[in-house]
Amino acid sequence: MSKKVSITLDDEILNFVDELTSDRSSFINEVLWKEKKRIFRQELEDAYTEQANDPDFQQEISVWDVTVGDGLND
After folding, report:
1. Using CB atoms within 10 A of its CB, is residue 40 exposed (0-12), middle (13-18) or buried (19+)?
2. What percent of the chain has pLDDT over 90?
3. Which of 4, 16, 41, 58 has the fewest CB atoms nearer than 10 Å to its CB?
4. What is the DSSP track for 2-44?
């Protein structure tokens, strides 16, 4: 779903956009999607780092690793 919105851009930024594309909306939408993806990936990386540095979480994982392996033949 798309919505029409009005935004205000500095003249320099608008000139820059116009130099790169004839479709302002698509260009701005693409830039914002890339930024959203970048932020998501950074948050995910931060969460993985936090888990890796959490000794309680690592202990819990090691318990589950043993449990999952119970009764399995190598």
Report:
1. exposed
2. 77
3. 4
4. ---------HHHHHHHHHH-S-HHHHHHHHHHHHHHHHHHHHH
Domains of the chain by residue range: 30-67
- Rounded to the nearest 5 degrees, what angle is found at the Cα of 20, between the Cα atoms of 15 and 22? 90
Q: Are 17 and 27 in contact (CB under 8 A)?
A: yes
CA dist 33 and 24 (Å) reads: 14
- Reported as a single tens digit per residue, the pLDDT across 17-50 is 999 999 999 999 999 999 999 999 999 999 999 9
Token duo for residue 56:
């309680």
- Of 1, 4, 52, 48, the closest CA to residue 28 belongs to 4
Are the C-beta atoms of 51 and 57 separated by less than 8 Å?
A: yes
